[in-house]
Amino acid sequence: MDGGYRYRHLIWATMMLSLLSTMCNAQVTEPPPIDPQDLQDNICSAARTCGECIALDPMCGWCGDQGYAEETNFRRCDLQANLMNKTCQDITFPESSVTVVQNDPLSDAGEGPSTEAVQVAPQKITLKLRPKETADLTVSVRQARDYPVDLYYVMDLSRSMQDDLDNLKELATTLAYEIGNITRNFRLGFGSFVEKTVAPYVDTAIGSLMEPCPGCEAPYNFRNHLPLDINTDLFSQRVNETSVSGNLDLPEAGLDALMQVTVCKDQIGWLPRARHIVVYTSDGSFHFAGDGKLGGVVQPNDGKCHLNPDTGYNTKANEYDYPSIGHLNVRMREQNVIPIFAVTAKQMSLYQTLARFIEGSTVGTLAQDSSNVVQLIKDNYEKITSRVEIVDNSPENLAVSYTSRCLDEAPRPNSKVCTGLRLGETVSFDVSVEATSCPDNNIQKFSIGPIGFDESILITVEVACECECEASAVPNSEYCTNGNGTLSCGQCACDPGRYGKQCECSSTDDAGTSFRDKYENVASCRANTNSTSSIVCSGRGECICGECACFERQNRKEIISGRYCECDNFSCERYDSELCGGPDRGECVCDEKKRRSACKCRPGYVGNACGCATSTAACIASNGLICNGRGRCNCNKCTCESPFQGETCEVCKTCIGKCSSYRPCVECQVYGVDISPADCNKCNVAVVIERDLPTINGSSLCVFPVPEGHSNCSQTYSFVYETLSNGTILVHLVEPGECGGDSGSGGNDGDGPVVEKDASGSEIFIFVISTVVAIVLIGLVLLALLRAATFLHDKREFARFQKEQKSAVWDQAQNPIYKPSTSTYVNPLYGK
Q1: Pairing of strands 124-129, 134-142
Q2: What CATH number is given to the structural domain containing 229?
Q3: 209 within domain boundaries
Q4: Is residue 673 assigned to a domain?
Q5: Where does the Integrin beta subunit cytoplasmic domain start and stop, copy by copy (predicted)?
Q6: Residue 273 needs a FRET pair 20 to 30 A away by CA distance; which of 40, 146, 312, 680 works?
Q7: Is 630 part of a structural domain of the chain?
Q8: Do residues 602 and 726 share a domain?
């Protein structure tokens, strides 16, 4: 095997390097970058009037200069910065603002300028917003000490609550005492509920309606026994005067009672500046909306007060259905009423579910006989006062979000609750208000406040959806072509029958078709005149009098053009990050036939982005051939055949010397094969036939087989080469001798050049097989040596073990911890 084959194992690594080199040299055509300024310009372009403009986006402003759009073709609705750069003088750009109207400091009763406590600050705020714009404000909340408490006790007085009523009678004084320890300013009230007095809820027999059970009071829906009062003895008295009643079904009319307690402010006696708490006790479930239909009560609950001021009974209980849970929650939130549900263990799961839908409510387990009711009220009151949750009644077009700042904790986004508070501690909430759209009424009001507080922040929001200049419009303005329109905010609103920027266009075309305004006659401004879905002026211009007036861009060098504004000079394809490859290669023009922008290439360049040069000058190899005859010239760059590479396919890292490069030219001149005569004439190679090869420094001895058809046997020819001063490659060639003889001087005496031959497929196969066999043999030898070393080591260790075993000396010994099964004792006095 020849010496050249020692390098063949590098072939795969060389091919990978060649592939990476090709990838690195390749040029990638990138899509044209999007100009951020162009995107911003188009945010405001859809607005036609000043009102539409300021409502479209907070970044949009309106130019009210007369002639601004008519003379310059600029858009009146644009970014504020763009309007200023375009020297607009009259810019309408409403600024948002937050104005605090009233901000009394937080204080306990009697500490501040007012005799009453202030628990929420500020109290009044005015916001001016544009649609899609956000305003930020901060709400502070502090629960005042000794704040008045109105506690109303409403009790289920069905027959099963007899023992609970008896215990309440005994604990009434204790309850008043414990409430007094919480706050010195409190009032107590008492009411009870049973059921609607219609079948099937109660027995409607005359006797049963008078006395449903022995010693029971006649059934009723709800009764206000005692309005809120500071006289605690009167509370005990009314509780002691109360008796239980009876009904047939298990659920009770508890929601009816809660609705009346909540909405009957005057009859119950709720103070406007107090904490309103209702204690609800029951051992049963409750009816809700829809249950009344079973008794023929189909009219939905109206959420109004129906208490008789003299007797305290609900007079409309049999006319209105039970309230829904959502309806009750709304009324309780409006009146700042917080319920405490004190129910038996069997009903805990039901009322815990109910409490999730009643804002601010809590649930406690009531003993079977209500003996723990006082402690339960005290514990749940502390839960209520240790928690602050913010709510609002904002309209649909306002989006309100919160971030809570609870004592020393970090801000919590999307949270409106603080817990673990004590009286006198202050927490705050960051509030963001966004106007999502324009309302019917530009001025709206809503409130933000904590659940259970009668204090809140009144927020007035003015949404800017109209421009002030629209209110001062000039009808029949001469600016609008002889008074054919109204001048509003710098532009003309044309009268019927006229349209155009200055109402200069007639409302009928040549065919007699009438148009209501300048935007209706747009058929001739659509690229596809048969489709109404085609965008007018390609979305980049305005149709005026049936013709497209293309918008101007911020960059004056960038021009939108074409009959339908479908072209421009800045969106063509790019080559090497340059538009159309740069000014030397081409320019971006309008292709009217295709109705799009396209590159117009200069002579010598072709392609969508003018990225392909038509010249082949860079592809000529040193031997005069295009790509050395080993590749194709594309766009003045060679695409080489494997394994050749380089700019002109003259580099072959798996080849030695330049034998393969010169072989095509040599064979075409000597044997007339390999390449065409035309390409052969381009060869920069001259061949000289020699008897013996000269020795030339730097040249390899090139040996190749004679082409087929030029020899009757397997013969080779050889040559060496040198470069003359004029750049011509001079080849010295020795032709083969007769068949069976030598091929001239084809040997190498050791001092001559290295011999190169092309390797046949069989020789490569033999090389690969021999390499694999050598690797396997080496592995087997190493495995045998490892096995022999292991065997010798084990043999030595076993011999040492046998030697130690033979030299061991064994003694008989007894286990020191062994105890025999029998023991012998000798009596020292025996025989004496």
Answers
A1: unpaired
A2: 3.40.50.410
A3: yes
A4: yes
A5: 787-832
A6: 312
A7: yes
A8: no
